[in-house]
Amino acid sequence: MGKKRVMVPADEVDLSTVKYQPQAVKAPHLTGWGFKLFVHLLEAPVIGSLIMSNLKKENKMNEILRETEIPEPPMFKPEYPPQEPEPGVVAVDEDGKPEDRVEIALSCLPHHDFASSWKEGSAPSFRYWKIRDYAHAYRSQLVTPSMVAERIILAIEEFKKTKPTAPLLISFDKEEIRKQATTSTQRFEEGNPISILDGIFMAIKDDIDCYPHPTKGATTWKHEVRLVEKDAVSVSRLRSCGVIFVGKANMHELGMGTTGNNPNYGTTRNPHGTDRYTGGSSSGPAAIVASGLCSAALGTDGGGSVRIPSSLCGVVGLKTTYGRTDMGGSICDSGTVEIIGPIASSVEDVMLVYSVILGSSPANRISLKPSPPCLPNLTSYESTNILGSLRLGKYTAWFNDVQSTEVSDKCEDILNLLLKTHGCEMVEIVVPEFEEMRIAHLVSIGSETQSSLSADIEDGKGVRLAYDTRTSLALFQSFSAADYVTAQCLRRRLMYHHMEIFKKVDVIVTPTTGMTAPKIPPSALKYGETNMQVTGDLMRFILAANLLGFPAITVPVGYDKEGLPIGLQIMGRPWAEATILRLAAAVEELCAKSKKQPASFFDVLNAN
Predict the structure, then answer these.
(1) Is the N or the C terminus of the chain less surrounded, counting Cβ atoms within 10 Å?
(2) Which residues, at least 6 apart from 314, have a Cβ–Cβ distance to it below 8 Å?
């Protein structure tokens, strides 16, 4: 080994010398029998090590992990200095009742005209029904939760007949849905609904427990070794508000992919183009919301898995600050990059669901010392003034590193309109060390995933995983303990860079993804695929929020020339969910007239 590269301490980096380098992941694109053969070679004792060694060398992994001296000590979980309180917010009690928190969230929302929403053809363009529309329809006896349940069951039964199979849900029990809907309908008949979420239909990603459904992580075997005896913490909080769960939503197996490809159960299709991927790994949750069948869904996000599919499917997805929500009862509850977050068709519905599920675990309250959770008060005139005072950070070279300029142009247009309408300030920033961030995130999430699966793999379950999952695991197994510690040293260094940026700006804005929804190769349906170029494009703007734990939201801002959705990402300071929700609501309002109905869409509320 030659002499090690020595990095200067993070606080001595001269940002004026930083030049943005477009990132390109070097790896073969494989599907079908060729992919199957590649995986068998990768898992072979000698040749597999040679292939993996070459792939890591091509992508500068060893250079950064083993041939670089990093002066910073490791940071094994995100650590933040105390944060300034956000302006114009309402504090909520994370120890209080979820139904009380959602009532506070409801009081933060602007006026909504139910009558004009309900009139057929009155809207100038397509719009999704909001949770408040369902609540109004139930309270006005225009429809009951049981009636909506029957429409959803019918649509899902029809969906199951599609060829090739492309399920939104992989665990679905119509009698369980009917039972929940009957109980909710009865509460409305008695004039005693629990909350605004009573009778609202939601799907839960298949790596989060929702009793009595099994949790498989979209594998064929996980439910055999991990029994579900109760709801995950977040699901329990929603259930206490009267939410009706339609089942467990499809996903990229074990969350280890960004497209949503799943050979085990079938690959969920994008409602805006059925030959397109939804994005992953929360493929089913994003698609079921985009198709109109559910008001909201829960996903997990360890590497963009809420934001990527939300963006590609044209809906809103919130990645909370690491530790803001309790991960108890999810498959990925022991990592340092994952969160459980809501997906919905509007910012206000994301905010309502978020208000219910927030609340850190007892362990994270001690170690992370979270700022008190707050919601933006969107009803006051003060809210407009706060928008005008916000400073938006933009690293232009990074912002424009997209597969098609349609993506960056659309995001740029909306930001210019935002500045013109509300008077926000755009600040040019520089973000250094992207290559280091990509590798530090990969080693962190990879090592933690490998650790959680090692007992099952040793027990012979590894060969029952999909080929792209096995490819990822082969890479993860090549990481050493020293690699993991190095990644955590990089985490501290990158945290310093970003916290310095947040001294100058309130949020960082980017496109959510570097491309719109990719096509599904027919040859990828049976055995899956590996396409690291697409993964790189989808994850380009994603990683800081996961590795460093920052809150981030994606909000739809328009479409490309093929009618595929484009999302804008807003990433905030630690614990500043209220700020990014406020800004996302303003962006959404500016884009309201340009919404298009997805090709695959069901109106289950007003089915006249």
Answers:
(1) C
(2) 272, 290, 556, 559, 565, 567, 595, 596, 598
* Predicted local distance difference test score (pLDDT) of residue 538: 98
Give DSSP secondary structure letters for 497-529. Answer: HHHHHTTT-SEEEEESSSSSPPB--TTHHHH-E
Q: How confident is the model at residue 238 (pLDDT cuts 50, 70, 90)?
A: very high
* Residues 557-589 as b or e (16 or more Cβ within 10 Å = b): bbbbeeebbbbbbbbbbbbbbbbbbbbbbbbbe
The SS3 call for residue 486 is helix
| CB-based contact 456:462 (threshold 8 Å) | yes
In this predicted model, what pLDDT tens digit does every residue of 290-348 receive, in sequence order? 999 999 999 999 999 999 999 999 999 999 999 999 999 999 998 999 999 999 999 99
Threshold 0.90, pTM exceeds: yes
* Cα 82-327-541 angle, rounded to 5 deg: 65
Contact between residue 74 and residue 13 where contact means Cβ atoms under 8 Å apart: no
Q: Per-residue pLDDT tens for 544-558?
A: 999 999 999 999 999
Q: Give the pair of three-digit tokens for residue 497.
A: 């860079």
User: Mean of the pLDDT values across residues 200-224?
Assistant: 98
**DSSP annotation of 254:** G
- DSSP at 325: B
- Active site residues per annotation: 205, 281, 305
**Alpha-carbon distance values, 274 to 135, 288, 443, 533 (Å):** 31, 13, 34, 22
